[in-house]
Amino acid sequence: MFRTIAVIGACTVATAAYYASQLMRYSSEEEKKRSIFGKSINWKSLAFTAVDDRVRGGRSQSHLTVNREGTAAVFHGHLDYTALGGAGFASQFYSKPGSPYNLREFQGLCIETEDGDGKTYAINLKTEHSPKRPDNRNASVVEYKYLFTPGPERQTFFAPFEEFKPYYRGRMLDEDRLVDKSDIKSVSLMASSFFAKQGGDFSVTFVSVSAYKN
């Protein structure tokens, strides 16, 4: 009887130690990440603004549909590049309220997706606000872009900050320019035609976007 109790006690201690080690491991992994969208910060569709090529006379459009729990967001819409001679884009834009993101301690962004359609998407970072033009539209500024192609399965993309390339009005700049990761004022999710290389309906589910460090 005492042997049975001892065995049960040993198993209980071992189980508790296992779960404690798993909790410590999980906590350590979480300390290496900072949630931006998803995980500990729920997705909110009202926090995003559609910025599509219709501002330039195009016909593309985008939507961000968040599930009831706020744990995932479907980025979907339609790309039409015929109106602008091959150029077309649709995006959901988030401007960080208050102070910008200071991600100096982090190496890049971790993007989790599922139910992708095989099209190429971009996550864009801006370190300056767009000034207003005389016609009250926002002027173009340099943005830093990372491209990825999500498929139907659950995927995780690691996007190092040094791989975000500078673009201006849809074209990559021929210069060695890195994003200032201590001063990120906005983040956007984008579908682009890449000058008539892709178009039509698009859809991908974003589970989370977070900053990571090694």
UniProtKB/TrEMBL annotation:
Entry keywords, A to Z: Ubiquinone
SUPFAM superfamilies to which the protein is assigned, alphabetical: Galactose-binding domain-like (SSF49785)
Pfam families: CIA30 (PF08547)
Gene Ontology MF terms in the entry: unfolded protein binding
Chain ranges of the NADH:ubiquinone oxidoreductase intermediate-associated protein domain: 47-204
GO biological processes: NADH dehydrogenase complex assembly
Entry-linked InterPro entries: Galactose-bd-like_sf, NADH-UbQ_OxRdtase-assoc_prot30, NDUFAF1
Domain of life: Eukaryota
PANTHER family: COMPLEX I INTERMEDIATE-ASSOCIATED PROTEIN 30, NAD(P)-BINDING ROSSMANN-FOLD SUPERFAMILY PROTEIN
Family of the protein in this entry: Belongs to the CIA30 family.
The name this protein goes by in its record: NADH:ubiquinone oxidoreductase complex I intermediate-associated protein 30
Organism: Basidiobolus meristosporus CBS 931.73
